[in-house]
Design brief:
Rna Polymerase Sigma Factor, Chain: A
């Protein structure tokens, strides 16, 4: 009788059905979703759908079965959404981690490059010239010596003192977290 009255649009009958069934549905749904707020939202959505579909043949034939079938679908939708949200979150996390590493690496490279340039600026004019000829332009010791009018042995000595000067500058002007990394890189670059 209440179901037929609700189907005819009687809000009071709907409210009676809601008050009777919602506590039982809430407890059953809560057991499945383990979240009071989500369980409450699912119950609200369930009764919203029942009211919207109140003229449906399924409600007239088997109100309880129809109601539990909607509840089942809503709970499945809830878990599908959670699974989808977890997948999106994981994809987002991977993208952020990947981009963060690239950004961090670029920032460290930019920072190290700037510090390295400052270290070179602190060299004597002769050390800078030898460094540029040998390390940047790729000249041999002999070719650099010819260009500068000095002996190849002097070029080698300049490079050795240049290496020490750059290493000392880097060690004194970098924070501890990246100091070791750039020290190793610098040693490889200057070798």
């Amino acid at each position: 009788m209440l179901v037929q009255s609700m189907q005819a649009g009687n809000e009071e009958s709907f409210t009676i059905l809601y008050r009777y069934y919602s506590p039982k549905l809430y407890i059953n749904i809560l057991r499945l979703v383990h979240d009071p707020l989500s369980a409450e939202e699912i119950v609200q959505e369930l009764f919203t759908r029942i009211w919207q579909k109140r003229e449906s043949k399924g409600i007239k034939e088997n109100y309880t079965g129809y109601m539990y079938r909607i509840a089942q679908h809503l709970v499945h939708d809830f878990f599908r959404k959670i699974k989808h949200d977890k997948e999106l979150l994981e994809r987002f996390r991977l993208i952020v981690e990947e981009d963060y590493e690239d950004i961090e690496e670029a920032l460290q490279l930019k920072e190290s490059s700037a510090i390295f340039q400052k270290a070179i600026e602190h060299l004597s004019p002769q050390q800078k010239k030898v460094y540029n000829l040998v390390r940047i332009e790729g000249c041999t010791y002999r070719k650099a010596a010819e260009i500068m009018g000095i002996s190849p042995l002097t070029v080698k000595e300049y490079l050795a003192t240049t290496k020490k000067s750059i290493q000392n500058y880097l060690l004194n002007n970098m924070d501890n977290s990246i100091e070791l990394v750039f020290f190793v890189i610098t040693c490889k670059i200057l070798s």
